[in-house]
Amino acid sequence: MDLDAFTAALPKVELHLHLEGTLEPELKLELARRNGVDIGQSTVEEVRATYVFDSLASFLAVYYPAMDVLVTRADFRDLAMAYFRKAAAQNVRHAEVFFDPQVHVARGVAFEDVVLGYHDAVEEAQRELGLSAGLILCIVRDLPVESAEDVVERMLEFREQVVGIGLDSDERGNPPAKFAHLFARAREAGFKVTVHCDIDQEDTVEHLRQALEDIAVDRIDHGTNVVEDPRLLALLQERGTGLTCCPVSNSFVTDDSKAPVIADLLRRGVKVTVNSDDPAYFGGYVTENLVALTRAASLGPDELIQLQRNAIDISWASDDVKEGFLAELDAYEALVAPPL
Ligand code: ADE
Ligand code: ZN
C-alpha cells in the first residue's frame, strides 16, 4: 500500500476546524440565493477569484463578510452537515470544531439558532455517519471584550451542546490575557479551554507564555513558535499540552507550511496533531494536510499513526469514543503494517 493510500484510509481525528471556514463556494452561493443576500459574486469562479490572501489579516478580510449568507438555524445545520459528510468520507471518526457566534449575533442572528443549528448537525453526524463531534465556541479576539462576555454568558446555558471555549481571529493587540476572566469563568463551569497562538504573529512568544502560564490552557491551536523559547517548550512537554497544527493553512498565512518544525516537535514527543483549519479557503481537508506534511517532512506510517494517537489523547472525546478509536487504530496498524 502506498503512503497516500495509507493516509487516506487511516482513521482520523480533527481538532482544529472552523465551521465557517468550511463554507465552500457552491454552498455559499446556494445560501446567498436562499436568503436573498448579495455577496457580489454569482459563480464559483467569481467567488474563488476573491480568495487572495497572504497573511492572517488578508484571509480574515475575505472570511468574515462571507458569513452574511448564514441566517437561519437550518443554514448552520446545513453548513456543519456538509463538513461532517466530507470528514466522514476521509475517515474522520471524531471532530472538535470551532464556531464564531459573535460575528453572527452582531448581524442580528439569534445565539441559539447558531448553537442549535450546529448541534442539530452534531446529532445527525453521530446518527447517520457514526462520527462523534464537539462544538468549541471561539472568542473573536479583535471584537470588543463586551461582545465576548455576552456570548460566554449565553454559552453557559448550553453546557450540553458546547464542549469548550477557544480564541481566534487577529492577534495584533489582542493577547490571551485580555480574556483571562472569561476562560476562568468557562473552566469553572466545566468547559475545556484552547487558544490560537497563530504562526509568526507579533508578540507570539508572549502570547504562548500567557496561554501556558497565566491561563493554563488544555491545548494550543497552531503554537509551533514555542520552539523559540526553551523554557516554554519544556513546560509544554512536561504538561503534555497538545498543539493543533495546520500545515496547508500555514502556507497561506505565512510564507511556508512549517513542516520541518511540526515534524521535529512530533519526533521530540510533543503532542502534535495535524488538522485543516479553514479547508474551503485553503483547499485542503485533513487528508490533504497529512499528505502535505508527509511529503514535506518525509513522515513514515508509524508517525502518521502517532499523530492520530496524539489527537485522540488530547481530544475532549468521551472515554468510550477514545477507547473505540484506539482499538480501530490498533487494528489498522496491525492490518497494514504487521509488526516484524
Ligand atoms: N479564524 C478562522 N481561521 C482562523 C485562523 N487560521 N487563525 C485565526 N483565526 C481564525
Ligand atoms: Zn484556526
TrEMBL record:
It is an enzyme of class 3 (hydrolase). Substrate binds at residue 278. GO terms for molecular function: hydrolase activity. The record marks 222 as: Important for catalytic activity. Its cofactor is Zn(2+). The keyword Transferase does not apply. Keywords: Hydrolase, Metal-binding, Nucleotide metabolism, Zinc. Zn(2+) binds at residues 16, 18, 196, 277. This is Adenine deaminase. It comes from Kineococcus endophyticus.
